[in-house]
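Appendix B, record 7
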Amino acid sequence: MHSHVAYYGSGSHFHRYGTVTTLDDGHTHNLGGNTSVDPGGDDDFHIHYFSGTTTFDDGHVHYYSGTTSSAIPLPNGYHYHLFNGQVAFADGHVHQYYGQTSVEI
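Structure tokens (predicted):
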């Protein structure tokens, strides 16, 4: 079984993502994981979905979900996506987050 898709648009793939939230209410949270799988095909403007739970910090977690930007091609044929959003309200506050994914896997 192949674990890596070498070229943009050549087939099914996903991305890894990870970042740290903004500092709010005196603390941050980490979040990360794998995006949804894109089945491949001819759509150069595809997106991925992601969701999860932040790390447990300051006595609580936050839930989050979102979609990435469209693919951003790289000169070597790979691509990545941008992502950003706001975690769900918990413990009286929210945090913002942003980042970029890995290249496709």
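Remarks on this record: DSSP finds no helices and eight strands in the chain. Residues 1-9 have pLDDT under 50 and may be disordered.
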